[in-house]
Amino acid sequence: MEYSSLELLKQDYWLFEDDHLSLRLYPHFYDDKESLAHFDLLKNTIDWKTEKIKIFGKEHLVPRVVAWQGEEGVKYKYSGVLHKAVGWSSEIEDIKNKIESETRTKYNSVLLNRYRGGSDKMGWHSDDEKELGVNPVIASLTFGAVRRFDFKEKVKENPKSLKLHLPSGSLLIMEGETQHYWKHQIPQQKKVEEERINLTFRLIKA
Ligand SMILES: O=C(O)CCC(=O)C(=O)O
Ligand SMILES: [Fe+2]
């Protein structure tokens, strides 16, 4: 199934449940004006970094720019480096509080990704790092360009799939066994020119 952003904006709330897939989407979590203001502030105030990864011993630049924040003392390894959080910026703390109160779940860190255009992307993966524990709740907030967010079942034979064109201001909650049985990606969409910023709030367990 594939849902356009216009289709997704028709409801206040969506539940996508399939074999071990458990998603909740709030298409109107922030309105257009708030989303634009958050996009601009995040784009201009976050210290965006170009991440490097090693594949077969060769260094590559990740096709997007990233940042990370969290509650003081929380540690997270990315880009081969252990990062220790020093606290939230006030804007992100406000966003986190709104998400926590509406989803009744606590988060202690956030990974920020900025896709500078349609060539920036994120490959197939699951958010299944050990430190997130079993069945993590991940809250994914989008500002800016509409990009396709694909889900695919991990099974080899006839994997099911789901494609959501996430609107600006939407909040997608991934929970239950989703990360164990499904992968997700942000594919390249060469025709997209505008930038997109995504924040994934997570709870890192010591
Ligand atoms: O940009 C997105 O919507 C996806 C981000 C993501 O999957 C991640 O940070 O793990
Ligand atoms: Fe992810």
Automatic annotation (TrEMBL):
Cell membrane keyword on record: no
SUPFAM superfamilies associated with the record: Clavaminate synthase-like (SSF51197)
Classification via InterPro entries: AlkB-like, AlkB-like_sf, ALKBH2, Oxoglu/Fe-dep_dioxygenase_dom
Required cofactor names: Fe(2+)
Binding site for substrate: 56-58, 76-78, 128
GO biological process, one term: DNA alkylation repair
Tree of life domain: Bacteria
PANTHER family on file: ALPHA-KETOGLUTARATE-DEPENDENT DIOXYGENASE ALKB HOMOLOG 2, DNA OXIDATIVE DEMETHYLASE ALKBH2
Name of the protein: Alkylated DNA repair dioxygenase AlkB
Taxonomic lineage: Bacteria, Pseudomonadati, Bacteroidota, Cytophagia, Cytophagales
